[in-house]
């Protein structure tokens, strides 16, 4: 009995001592038992702001400026403690649930863990590696989006190649909606880790927010010497501590290496259930649970390794743990794979061309959807492998793969069955995109937002009009050279368009009649972003009201020529309208917004402020 209690105590102690090694935990236990006090080293706390922005998934700003970009998070605060909408802050591309409701949004993946909330991220490098004692994030507008803060063992400024890169969660929580948009300093209680770090990753989920969240600076506090507890406090033993820790599940390939060949001692009546019913039950498990269950008995090993359990596979929630070995262990189970999400995975050497190519050659034949957002391991040979091994691919997301060289995109045109292509913040050039449009005529959704290397968007618009008649959504966010001529050709040839993002396209002028021509030619339009176009006027809004009754999302931020009267006509004529952004519209003050909101309570009318 004494031995059993000792084992129970040791297991719980191990779960509670995740901030140190096993040896330190046992040393602390002996210190408690002997009444001795551990030595507490004296160390001065270091406070430092981010030295450099290393990576991020999206931002509101342009690739060629500092306004609303993630690069504003480097250095000391620019705005805090002021509140409001300021160009000197870091702003992510999206907020709320509007984007999830659009036709261009892909359906969610099955088996996504309930605890995975992250939608965007930013990685920050600091000057000095420290053992973190606190992390402070200065939020200046609509706070509450941060859902996870992580630390990395790798020094991003080291000249040596990364080896044995380890990520540790300092803090995590669920997305929240703060009652006020006012600035605040977010300082969660963080977990202590057993390695020094100067690389932090902040992950956000803005789905509950009423407007764009804005971040001003991040402060990392810590000590250079490893802190030791003065006295190890006896943990409160909880039966929940007997569950496997996140650290012990860090390698998804582990269960496969163990083989799962446990002796079968009888399954009661479980093996008498129909095969299809067992498969249905197992379909509700997360991927790590499925891997563990495969080790329990031969029957469940057979079910857990059935390729039908892996027709959809999202590895994004496990981005920090995956490697070539992980894909290798999953490879034999993914022969019927149809949808694959590898977003955020493989950076800093975790995935290689060899591991990726092997997996794609074995599992790409049936693949219809491939998500590769922010995958910086990708290179030209990787895209060549995709074009050769995925003949039926219909959806490809390369969002923010900004380190992929221009020549790599020349392989995309071989995927002639593409229907959805996301190239946001990539280095694709005009020749490559014209080749894609020439051969991929079945395109339904195309995102070319912030693709700054395309020289002439009028030529691209003309090709879209000539080849892609079935186009449903087009994102041209921050394209710098689309003119009224190109827009006219586009809306004349692609009359099935339901979503069109022309935000921050400065060369479009309302005086040419291009926006009224757009409205008359796109009666199915549901989403239109004319963000920061100061020339949008009452005539444009009234034409939208007359020609686009299905309109749901309209952004005319920054216009100076729209009056309350035309907005009232729009709201009356478009009963499905859900979002109307009137921020920085000089003729529309808060009194008008409140009046319109009272008359049309189902519409989220946005009006940002600065103070």
TrEMBL record:
Keywords assigned by UniProt, alphabetized: Leucine-rich repeat, Ubl conjugation pathway
User: Record's SUPFAM superfamilies?
Assistant: F-box domain, RNI-like
* Keyword Translocase among record annotations: no
Gene3D superfamilies noted in UniProt: 1.20.1280.50, Ribonuclease Inhibitor
The record's listing under InterPro entries reads: F-box-like_dom_sf (IPR036047), F-box_dom (IPR001810), Leu-rich_rpt_Cys-con_subtyp (IPR006553), LRR_dom_sf (IPR032675)
Sequence ranges assigned to domain F-box in this UniProt record = 267-313
Where does the source fall among the domains of life?
A: Eukaryota
- Is Transmembrane helix a UniProt keyword of this protein? no
Q: Which GO terms describe its biological process?
A: SCF-dependent proteasomal ubiquitin-dependent protein catabolic process
> GO cellular component annotations, sorted alphabetically?
SCF ubiquitin ligase complex
Q: Which PANTHER family match?
A: F-BOX_LRR-REPEAT PROTEIN 4, PARTNER OF PAIRED, ISOFORM B-RELATED
Identification of the protein by name: F-box domain-containing protein
Q: Which organism is it from?
A: Pogonophryne albipinna
